[in-house]
Amino acid sequence: MKTIINIGELTGIVPEGILRKEGAAMSDTGTLKGAWLRIADDGTIADFGLMSDQNPACRLWPLRTGGAQDSGQTETDASPLPDGEQIDAGGGLVMPAFCDSHTHIVYAGSREGEFIDKINGLSYEQIAARGGGILNSADLLHRTAEDELYGQALERVQEMMSKGTAAIEIKSGYGLNPEDELKMLRVIRRIKENVPATIRSTFLGAHATGRGYTHEGYVQEVIDMMPRAAALADFVDVFCDEGFFTPDDTARILEAGARSGLRPKIHANELAVSGGVQVGVKYGALSVDHLERTTDAEIDALKGSGTMPTMLPGSSFFLGIPFARAKEFIAASLGIALASDYNPGSSPMGDMRFVMALACIKMKLTPVQALNATTLNSAYAMGISKQTGSITKGKRADLILTYPGWTLNRIPYTYQTPFIKSVFINGETAA
Ligand code: NIG
Ligand code: FE
Predict the structure, then answer these.
(1) How far is CA 199 from the centre of its chain?
(2) pLDDT reported for residue 431
(3) In this structure, are residues 396 and 423 in contact, taking their beta carbons and an 8 Å threshold?
(4) Which residues surround the ion ligand 2 when the cut-off is CB under 5 Å?
(5) What is the residue-wise DSSP string for 135-193?
(6) Residue 214, Cβ neighbours under 10 Å: how many?
């Protein structure tokens, strides 16, 4: 048992049983000013409350030094001193750690050369058409030993945890043949086994047509790979977009995924109005992601579904493409999640605080909406919002403690000033 005391502001409190926030509820979150939070031995949130609600005789309860026993206040102390460590937040803010429901962090090396091509005027599609892009990463990954790949990916996970992320979805998709796709999925499993963050794994065999295959031949290969991939992955994904996979390809792949027990998460509507949202909703996708190019038809298709629209403002920023219409989705009573899309081609960063800042500055979300989108709703988008993503009794204590005096608004506002004092993952200090 340990207790964080003297919390200036405890925010991101959500009642038990709420697994996502939609519409107007995205603008709400529970906040206590002057709070404590107790962490159980199993790493979950045991309880929290107001410092002022404690017995006035021990104003700074549960302070240990000079506590009840020593000062002879035993009979007035309604609340016994809890066992275990006490952490003085010193007036810092405590909020749920970030959840990042869309990343591609298992990749080899970088694509710095293409960064220069992009500066010189080539678009994402033009780079891909020259054999660069995803295929470039696939060639590099093919030449990289599994241990080396694991080491590179682990460094990215550690960087993300230090920036306050406690749950990460990681996709395959730079293998593009059975051997290399399975290599990636094994690396993700190894990460899952070795880091404190919650990891979810997604089979994205259909990220691009693998070298040496016809398009149709590769779609069939992805379908054939499904049972082996399903032994390692939690979800199936398809890049359903212009120049990559059609809604028909996507439907066939999702049917194969369903036969192997994999729920979809879809890349949709990044490069064009692709039909990806509709096919995703039809097959019960947990999320449809990107959505930079959407019409009202996509918003309508999502209404009443269990699918979380997920927006990736890091890609819009890096590629110079439109930001998704987050406010209109929320006005249509939908929820949205935000994720980093951390990958070497369209979003080479995994900083969820910057994602939050982009959402506020470029998509005009309020900081509370951005908080809900980067925590609870992003947890929902990887099927773990029963376990994490908010300050709720019984959930994992996945928390960010800030330096003293920080408010939620200031986090995306002064978006480069260091704000994290510590990160707790499952109740343990992880950074
Ligand atoms: O989500 N759009 C498809 N996949 C990634 C980019 C992958 C890459 O360029 O390496 C994305 O943006
Ligand atoms: Fe992606």
Answers:
(1) 10
(2) 87
(3) no
(4) 341
(5) HHHHHHHHTS-HHHHHHHHHHHHHHHHHTTEEEEEEE--S--SHHHHHHHHHHHHHHHH
(6) 9
Q: Is the CB of 250 under 6 A from ligand 1?
A: no
Query: Chain-wide mean pLDDT for the chain?
Result: 93
- Among 103-112, 124-133, 280-289, the least confident range: 124-133
Q: Is there an atom of ligand 1 within 6 Å of 412 CB?
A: no
Beta bridge partners of 208: 206
Pairing of strands 235-240, 263-268: parallel
Q: Please provide residue 59's backbone torsions phi and psi, each rounded to the nearest 5 degrees.
A: -45, -40
User: Would you say the CB of residue 209 lies under 6 angstroms from ligand 1?
Assistant: no
Give the model's confidence band at 83: pLDDT under 50 very low, under 70 low, under 90 confident, else very high: low
Q: Is 169 in the pocket of ligand 1 (CB under 6 A)?
A: no
280 C-beta closer than 6 A to ligand 1: no
Q: Report helix, strand or coil for 47.
A: strand
Residue spans of the domains in the chain: they are: 2-96+391-429, 98-380
Residue 165 CA to ligand 2 centre (angstroms): 17
Which overall architecture, per CATH, does domain 98-380 show?
Alpha-Beta Barrel (3.20)
Q: How far is the first Cα of the chain from the last one, in angstroms, to the nearest whole number? A: 19
Question: Which has the minimum average pLDDT: 8-12, 30-34, 68-72, 337-341?
Answer: 68-72
Pairwise pLDDT comparison (293 vs 71), residue with the higher score? 293
Confidence of residue 131 (pLDDT cuts 50, 70, 90): confident
pLDDT at 280: 98
Instruction: Tell me whether domains 2-96+391-429 and 98-380 share a fold.
Output: no
Kindly list the distances between the CA atom of residue 195 and the CA atoms of 33, 104, 198, 379, in Å, as whole numbers in the listed order. Answer: 32, 17, 8, 17
Regarding the beta carbon of 134 and ligand 1, being less than 6 Å apart is answered yes
**The architecture CATH gives domain 2-96+391-429:** Roll (2.30)
Query: Is the full-model pTM beyond 0.90?
Result: yes
Report which protein residue has its CA nearest ligand 1's atom 5: 346
Closest residue (by CA) to atom 7 of ligand 1? 345
Residue 156 has pLDDT above 90, yes or no: yes
Atom of ligand 1 nearest to the CA of 315: 12
